[in-house]
Structure formats: C-alpha cells, structure tokens
Amino acid sequence: MSASGRALVREKQIPGNLKRVFEIMDTDQDGKISQDDLLLVTAHFGYKVKPTEAEEIIWEVDEDCDKMVSWQEFTEMYDRCRKDKTGCEPKRLYFIVEFMIIDKDNGGEISVEEAIEDLYLQHGKEELDNRLEDMFGADLDVNDPEAVLDLEKFVSAMRLGQLKQMREKTMNKTKSSSSLKKKSSSFR
C-alpha cells in the first residue's frame, strides 16, 4: 500500500477511533472529560496519575477554562499533536488517547501485533522497525506473545520519543544557525 493510501486509511479511521475513545473517557457521559473521568480511566488501565497531574493534563487542553475537555477541545488537541513536528506540543492526554486507539479491546495492554498495524498505517514499512524499537525496546522479539505494553510503559516510551524529537529539532536548528554564520562571515 502506498504512503498516501495508508494515510487515507488512517485518516478515515481517526474520527471513529476518537469518538470511541472520547465516549470511554467521558465516564459520566456528560459530554466532557473531567479530572475525575481521567482519573477513573487511567486507574482502569493501572496507570497511577495523581489528582494534581490529572488537573494539569486537563488544563493543557482546556481552551475555555471550564476544567473539562469538550469534544471540540479533544479533537483539536489530537490534530495539533499529530501535526506537531517540534515535539513541543503538550502531549500527555494525546499519549493516553493513542494508547486507547491502539488498544481496541480496552484490555489495558498493547501487543506487538496491535502496534504493528497502527504504526504501519502511520509511518509505513520503512519506519516500522524504528517505531517498534522506540515503543518496545531494542531487544524486541516480534513473535513473543509476552511483548506487550501497558499504559504506563507506553506513555514512558512516547515521552522519550518526544524528547528525542525535540533534541533532534534543536540540533538541526543549531547546525543551520552555525552554517548560516559561516556563510555570512565568508561574504565579509
């Protein structure tokens, strides 16, 4: 499947996946995700989040300052994070959502098989091995049924990936800046 074909398949899946995840996270079915909703969902997945951390996660996304995440805020956050090339976008809620999208059965774990399907659609065959390694570690045996990630391990792996992305962006800026200085000094 071509890159554009994969992207189209994933793009078509996103609205349904986001709606499914939002409805699960909105535990009291009031149309918004509150701090309590977030605490219940993360506890269900065995991911310990302190109330103050849950409050911060909501705050990062809460555009209208009502201490809740509406459907519009939720989808806008997801789009911003997906398109973020700098690594600077706050992604704590995004990582939880991505986990829940991949963990379609809400079993609390992502298998290699589940991850492969999603990563292939996002990044293609060329990047698949690198992305799996980022997620599961360098010593991954793709045939090992015990190779699974829970939410805590997934979030940790994604945060490391975000830091790596920020570091690479900074290094590229530094290289560009130093090459510009060299070029400008050669014109003097």
From TrEMBL:
Keywords recorded for this protein, A-Z: Calcium, Repeat
Sequence segments annotated as region (Disordered): 167-188
InterPro entries: CALM/Myosin/TropC-like, EF-hand-dom_pair, EF_Hand_1_Ca_BS, EF_hand_dom
TM spans (from-to): none
Transmembrane listed as a keyword: no
Name of the protein: EF-hand domain-containing protein
Pfam families tied to this protein: EF-hand_7
Calcium is among the record's keywords: yes
SUPFAM superfamilies in alphabetical order: EF-hand
Domain EF-hand: 13-48
Family matches, as PANTHER family: CALMODULIN LIKE 3, MYOSIN LIGHT CHAIN 1, 3
Molecular functions (GO terms): calcium ion binding
One cellular component (GO) term of this entry: myosin II complex
Recorded superkingdom: Eukaryota
